Amino acid sequence: MSEHTFARASHLSEMEAESIHILRETVAEFANPVMLYSIGKDSQVLLHLARKAFHPAPLPFPLLHVDTTWKFRDMYAFRDAFVARHGLRLIIHRNQRALAEGINPFDHGSQKYTHAMKTQALLEALAAHGFDAAFGGARRDEEKSRAKERVFSFRDRHGQWDPRRQRPELWNLFNGRVDAGESMRVFPLSNWTELDVWHYVLRERIPVVPLYFAAERPVIDRGGTLLMVDDERMRLRPGEKPELRRVRFRTLGCYPLSGAIESSATTVETVIHEMVNARQSERQGRLIDHDEEGSMELKKREGYF
What we know:
- It holds the Pfam family PAPS_reduct.
- GO terms for molecular function: ATP binding; sulfate adenylyltransferase (ATP) activity.
- By secondary structure, this protein is of the alpha/beta class.
- It is built from 8 helices and 10 strands.
- It has a 6-stranded mixed beta sheet, with helices on both faces. The protein has a 4-stranded antiparallel beta barrel with strand order 7-8-10-9.
- The protein is globular and about 55 Å long.
């Protein structure tokens, strides 16, 4: 083993140990935790760590998927197959009022759509089940407002976040005290990077949605963003015509709001190689991050994941 390979293996083991400690600490401190499951690579890594943390017992909490109904079809297929294969408890929650009103990413814009189908839906689900801690797969390196988050991120009775009222976390000591109605978002992957995640996926052979790997897919180029036409609901603008291009996704969300990148990476190894040479942000293709100045921080203050 080369010195570099040894250092990487040691680094991943340290990150794994830290995350498992956070998972166990949360289960010990809170009465009713849940793990948010978005089906992406970070969710897969977090779920893998949780299964390791409590092996051989089953997970001591359910998974929660806040379903906008606009995820890629491959994501739904992957979710259902993975959950069934491993006998996991999965709660699927949709904002039924917003669905009845026909809220969608085309007519209502990404901001209103995200607030209704993600933020409100998440707050509904957490309140309905009385969850007092919610694990998430967010990492500090993803986006500037996420860099401000603590590992234990306090939410008030309305599920809202105030970045000025965060609790100090010294020497990995976490303050999990909450009063009735308050809750905590917990981020065991806070200190991981995108590259760490992929190296861990490689080391542990963690399955991920095939959309992360390059293949010929029907896309349109909308203002420089490559959007995949995943089903008949995609609304094309005048002059737009889907064409087959070899693309993959670095981050997955609702398909009308998730941009692909052109790529030839078809394996985890080649994805890592591509990333080492990448010069653009992982979330460059997430349109909801850029629909207004300070967008993600405003969403998080309102209760967004």
